[in-house]
């Protein structure tokens, strides 16, 4: 009889997840909890429904209210989470936003709002997390949430495309620097997912039909479809995976 633990077992690990109150972040937090991890949720809104699901899975969730665009606040959130749990093992950079406009009409405030949250906050939260790990001499996993627009241009989402393209480059850069220090940095690239950020697309009947026609799986993703990929990249199963970008897109990029 083989008593070795599953390579997907996260028992005893603590995962810090941004944007865990809804959508993809909520689904990832719940999946990690079901795999055995406790959750440190960081963001502006208390994830009450997520907390109920995490507790229902027999795990713990603590919320650390943080303005993610505030670099100093990110370091404070990491410190508070580490004190609360005694350790951190996984970081999921999920929080993000999108602003839609023709490129000719994009404003500087809208550009900054997207890039600051989707890219700048990701880097500085990863930096604070890695510093905490290295101070303990501990290994860790960072999972960034990229996008199909990390690979493609899209339309009417200039700042979002720039931020998500930059995120893939940042994922690879951090993997190069931190792999020798036992920190894995990888990313998930979701396809079209039924979330608040895609509501405008789903409300546009013509765009919705065109998108669906290109997805080999024949449907949009639901947030729970991202959970397994996150568990893999957070767990020992991915210990030799560095700098990867895993599309979870129903086959969109293979079309």
Report on the architecture of this protein.
The chain has helices spanning 23-34, 48-56, 71-85, 108-136, 158-178, 199-203, 205-214, 227-234, and strands spanning 14-18, 38-43, 61-65, 90-93, 140-145, 183-190, 245-248. The mean pLDDT is 97. The chain has one domain (14-249): NAD(P)-binding Rossmann-like Domain (Rossmann fold). Helix 1 (23-34) packs across helix 8. A seven-stranded parallel beta sheet has the order 3-2-1-4-5-6-7, with helices on both faces. With 255 residues, it is an alpha/beta fold. Strand 4 (90-93), helix 4 and strand 5 (140-145) form a beta-alpha-beta unit. It is built from eight helices and seven strands, in the order βαβαβαβαβαβαααβ.
Nutshell version of this structure?
By secondary structure, the chain is α/β, with parallel strands linked by helices. It has 8 helices and 7 strands.
Number of domains: 1
From the alpha-carbon coordinates, what is the Rg to the nearest angstrom? 18 Å
Oligomer: single chain
Beta strand %: 5-15%
In CATH, what is the homologous superfamily?
A: NAD(P)-binding Rossmann-like Domain
The helix content is 40-55%
Structural class computed from helices and strand pairing: alpha/beta
Total strands: the figure is 7
The name of the CATH topology is Rossmann fold
Distance between the termini: 44 Å
Outline: globular
CATH architecture: 3-Layer(aba) Sandwich
Strand order of the largest sheet: 3-2-1-4-5-6-7
Tally the helices.
8
Which regions have little confidence, pLDDT < 50, spanning 5+ residues? none
Give the CATH level 1 class: Alpha Beta
């Amino acid at each position: 009889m083989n008593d070795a633990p599953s390579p997907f077992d996260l028992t005893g690990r603590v995962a810090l997840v941004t944007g865990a109150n809804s959508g993809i972040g909520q689904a990832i937090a719940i999946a990690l909890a079901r795999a055995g991890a406790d959750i440190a949720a960081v963001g502006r809104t208390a994830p009450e429904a997520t907390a109920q699901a995490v507790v229902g899975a027999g795990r713990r969730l603590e919320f650390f209210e943080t303005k993610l665009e505030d670099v100093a606040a990110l370091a404070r959130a990491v410190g508070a989470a580490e004190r609360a749990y005694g350790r951190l093992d996984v970081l999921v950079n999920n929080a993000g936003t999108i602003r839609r406009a023709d490129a000719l009409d994009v404003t500087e405030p809208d550009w900054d709002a997207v890039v600051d949250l989707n890219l700048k906050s990701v880097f500085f939260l990863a930096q604070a997390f890695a510093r905490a790990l290295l101070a303990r001499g501990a290994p860790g996993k960072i999972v960034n949430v990229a996008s199909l627009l990390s690979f493609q241009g899209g339309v009417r989402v200039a700042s979002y495309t720039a931020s998500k393209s930059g995120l893939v480059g940042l994922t690879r850069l951090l993997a190069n620097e931190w792999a020798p220090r036992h920190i894995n940095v990888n990313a998930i690239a979701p396809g079209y997912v039924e979330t608040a950020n895609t509501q405008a697309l789903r409300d546009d009947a013509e765009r919705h039909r065109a998108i669906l026609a290109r997805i080999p799986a024949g449907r949009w993703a639901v947030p729970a479809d991202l959970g397994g990929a996150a568990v893999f990249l957070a767990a020992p199963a991915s210990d030799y995976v560095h700098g990867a970008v895993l599309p979870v897109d129903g086959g969109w990029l293979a079309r």
